[in-house]
Design goal:
By secondary structure, the protein is an alpha+beta fold. The chain is built from 2 helices and 2 strands; from the N terminus they run ββαα. Strands 1-2 form a two-stranded antiparallel sheet. Helix 1 packs across helix 2 (50-108).
């Protein structure tokens, strides 16, 4: 198993040490994303505590995750349908090729 990386990040002005198997760059990127979400919430309402802004940011990110999952499932369903249609078309093409081959063979006689 890969070694865990310990990375110091700053979110909402607080220092955190995050340990994970991901690269330092990835962990920093995730932390920056969370920090930006918190800043966006805090800028819209200066009266929110860091805790309240964190909850709202979490709810917003969870909403994004759910919507993205839903979109992914929809895309997977569409892909499955396209594969099915492709296979039907391919099967029809193979059938037509056989028919043409038989017709050509009959003409040669």
């Amino acid at each position: 198993m890969a070694q865990k990386n310990k990375v110091t990040v700053y979110i909402a002005g607080n220092e955190y040490v995050i340990a994970g198997h991901e690269t330092e760059e990835y962990i920093q990127k995730v932390a920056l994303f969370v920090d930006q979400k918190l800043r966006d919430i805090a800028q819209k309402n200066h009266f929110l505590s860091t805790s309240m802004a964190s909850v709202l940011a979490s709810v917003n990110m969870a909403d994004e995750v759910f919507r993205t999952r839903e979109k992914l499932q929809e895309t997977e369903r569409e892909l499955t349908e396209l594969k099915k249609r492709y296979q039907q078309q391919y099967d029809e093409l193979q059938h037509l090729r056989k028919e043409v081959y038989i017709m050509l063979k009959l003409q040669v006689r």
